């Protein structure tokens, strides 16, 4: 049976880091019919990591799909990290039976938390290498892909160890400059908080612009800004800030992930 492995990490596309990680994974899983899909997020961006884990993990996946997620800012404490120690690796099974091996850092698992059926600690070294995602973690991924769960999984964990994702915030900027936010349709459009066709003002990181509330990004004229129901979020889409014919990210100065989004009349 062909298997799918999503690798989500804060390494540049086609970089040495990604190359070395994928090399380790291929070498340790040579006996499997495995398709590896690498996806890059900006450096240390756990908000974007969490969003992509949610979007890919709950998307249409073949049986036996596994996600390997590694964005590890090592910000769990401000003091020096002895021996390159960092945030802990965990294993989880989602409600759709997709499994994941992930560093529980920042917001990396926040969007998926309501869909996690089981969360466990993993037996693996968390210190001793600056490049844990290459040196220590791939063998864990291999054991999970081969069904050797008993070799790695230990005590259950409470979902409270996973942070809430930031509300009213920038979540992701796509390749077209559209700004995806953590606002969702069920809490905005469905409740009447935002009414389609209304004009609102959007403020991010000190930049402010008027936008038209729409049910879809292209429901505005060329050059007009929209606050629209986006293409991500599965059955409860996230709202996007979309500039038709341009880049909303340029307009708002390329706001950082987690930046607050304020919307007023």
Oligomeric status: single chain
Number of H/I helices: 5
Q: CATH superfamily name of the largest domain?
A: S-adenosyl-l-methionine hydroxide adenosyltransferase, N-terminal
Separation of termini?
A: 54 Å
Overall mean pLDDT stands at: 91
- Assess the beta-strand content as a share of residues: 25-35%
Shape: elongated
The ordered string of helix (H) and strand (E) elements is EHEHEEEEHHEEEEEEEHE
Point out poorly predicted stretches: 76-85
- The counted number of beta strands is 14
Main structural class: alpha/beta
Radius of gyration: 20 Å
Please give the CATH class of the largest domain: Alpha Beta
The residue fraction in helices comes out at: 10-25%
Q: Please, how many domains?
A: 2
The order of strands across the largest sheet is 2-1-3-5-4-6-7
CATH structural fold name of the largest domain: Rossmann fold
CATH architecture of the largest domain: 3-Layer(aba) Sandwich
Sketch the major β-sheet.
7 strands, mixed
């Amino acid at each position: 049976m062909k298997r799918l492995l999503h690798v989500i990490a804060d390494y540049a596309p086609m970089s040495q880091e990604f190359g070395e990680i994928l090399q380790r994974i291929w070498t340790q899983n040579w006996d499997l019919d495995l398709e590896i899909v690498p996806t890059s997020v900006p450096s240390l961006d756990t908000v974007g990591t969490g969003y992509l884990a949610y979007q890919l993990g709950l998307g249409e996946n073949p049986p036996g799909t596994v996600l390997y997620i590694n964005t590890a800012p090592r910000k769990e404490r401000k003091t020096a990290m002895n021996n390159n120690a960092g945030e802990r690796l965990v294993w989880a099974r989602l409600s759709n039976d997709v499994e994941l091996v992930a560093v529980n850092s920042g917001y990396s698992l926040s969007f998926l938390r309501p869909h996690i059926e089981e969360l466990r600690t993993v037996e693996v070294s968390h210190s001793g290498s600056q490049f844990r995602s290459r040196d220590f973690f791939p063998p864990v991924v291999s054991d999970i892909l081969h069904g050797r769960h008993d070799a790695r999984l230990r005590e259950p964990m409470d979902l409270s160890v996973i942070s809430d994702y930031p509300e009213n915030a920038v979540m992701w900027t796509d390749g077209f400059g559209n700004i995806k936010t953590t606002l969702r349709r069920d809490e905005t459009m469905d409740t009447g908080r935002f009414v389609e066709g209304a004009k609102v003002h959007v403020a991010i990181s000190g930049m402010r612009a008027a936008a038209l509330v729409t049910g879809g990004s292209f429901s505005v004229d060329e050059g007009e800004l929209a606050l629209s129901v986006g293409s991500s979020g599965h059955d409860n889409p996230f709202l996007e800030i979309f500039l038709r014919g341009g880049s909303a990210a340029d307009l708002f100065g390329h706001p950082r992930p987690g930046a607050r989004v304020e919307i007023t009349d």
